[in-house]
Amino acid sequence: MPPVIDVVDLEKTYPDGSQAVRGISFSVEEGEFFGFLGPNGAGKSTTIKILITLLAPTAGQARVFGRDVRADATRTRTVIGYAAQEVGVDDDLTGRENLMLQGALYHIEPRALRRRVNELLELVDLAPDADRQAGSYSGGMRKRLDLATGLIHRPQLLFLDEPTTGLDPQNRAGIWSYLEDLNKREGLTIFLTTHYLEEADRLCGRLAIIDHGRIIASGSPASLKAELGGDLVRLSFRGSDEETHAQRSRAAALLEGRAFAAGVRDDGTELVVTAREGGRALPQILRVLDEAQIYVDDLTLTSPTLDDVFLKYTGERIREDAPVQNWRNQRMAGFLRAGAGGRARRRP
After folding, report:
1. HSE on the CB side for 245, CA within 13 Å?
2. Domains annotated on the chain, with CATH
C-alpha cells in the first residue's frame, strides 16, 4: 500500500530569495501519528501549507493519497482536515453554528450534517455549551471547537500546525488526549508540527526533526534518544566564568575515553557526560575528578530528551517561544475553495 503522504526532494524558495524548505524527503503511513519537531523558522509551517494545497512548492514532489497536491488540489482537500496555529472560528456564531457552517462548505447533506455536528460536540466535550457564542468560550474550548471544524467532513488525514500554541499546560494536555483518542480509536492518520518537546514525545509514534529547512534526524522518539548512547550526567563547577571554563576543560580531558563514558560535551555552562549506565557511572566520575582535585558544585542524572537529540545534531537547543502566526485568512480560503470545488466525499 502506498504511503498516505509521500514527499520527495521538496523545496520552497520565497520571492525574496529565502529558502524555507531545502530538499526534504519523508513519508507517512496510514494510521500513523507523525510529527515535525523544530524551532520557529525551521520550515514546518511551509511544508504543511504545501501539503494542504495552500502553497506551491518551488521544486520536488508532494503526494497525498497518491495525488499530486498541485495537479489535484481540489480532490486532495476533500480527504484532509486542517487545524492551524491560530483559532479560526467565528466568535459571533455559536459552537454549533460554526460546525454547521463548515459542514455547509463541504456540501454535507443537512440531516447527516446535524448528526455529525452532534457527534463532534460530544467528542470534544462541548455539547453542554454548543449554543453559546464561541466568543464566550475559554481558550481551550475555542481550540477544541477549531479542531472539530477540521473533522467535520470525516477526513482521512488530519494536519495540525502547532495546535496547542498559546494554551496553558492543563488545556494543552486536554487537547493531547483528544488527539490520542482520534488516532488510536478511530485510526485517523495525523501529521503534526510542533516546537514543544513533550508534545512530540507523547503523541508521535515517529517524527522528523527539522531545522533551517532540512530534516536532520528521523525515527521514533525512543530510537532517536537511544542514539545518544545512554543517560546524561550534568556537572557544574563553582567559580568565575574563566575558572569554571578551565575546570570543565580539565574534567573533559580526564573523562573522555573512559569505559563508562560514551561521550563528553561542554555545553558552555555544564559538562555533559553520556554514560552507558548512569547510576554506576556516577561514583566513577566523581572518583576520577576528586583524585584530580576538581570538585563538582552540582550534579544531575537524567534520561535523554528530544532536546538533547536536537542539540547533538545542531549544537543548539530547541526554542519554545515561537510566535503565533495568523493563518486564518489562508485557512478559510482553503475551506471555501474546497466547498466551491466540488462535493466532499462523505462516509455513510
Report:
1. 4
2. 5-224+321-341 (3.40.50.300), 229-303 (3.30.70.260)
- β strands within 38-176, DSSP E: 59-64, 67-68, 80-83, 157-161
Global pTM reads: 0.81
Looking at residue 284, its pLDDT comes to 95
Task: Using alpha carbons only, give the angle 62, 213, 327 rounded to the nearest 5 degrees.
Answer: 70
What is the Cα–Cα distance from 117 to 298, expressed in whole angstroms?
55
Name the DSSP letter for residue 4. S
pLDDT of residue 277: 85
How many residues can be counted in the chain?
A: 348
Residue 86: the pLDDT is 86
* Residues of the chain falling short of pLDDT 50: 321-348
C-alpha 257/C-alpha 2 separation (Å) is 46
List Cα–Cα distances, 68 to 62, 186, 220, 231, in angstroms: 6, 26, 27, 44
Supply 15's cell numbers.
Answer: 520571492
Q: Give φ, ψ of 238 to 5 degrees.
A: -95, 145
Chain Cα centroid distance, residue 303:
21
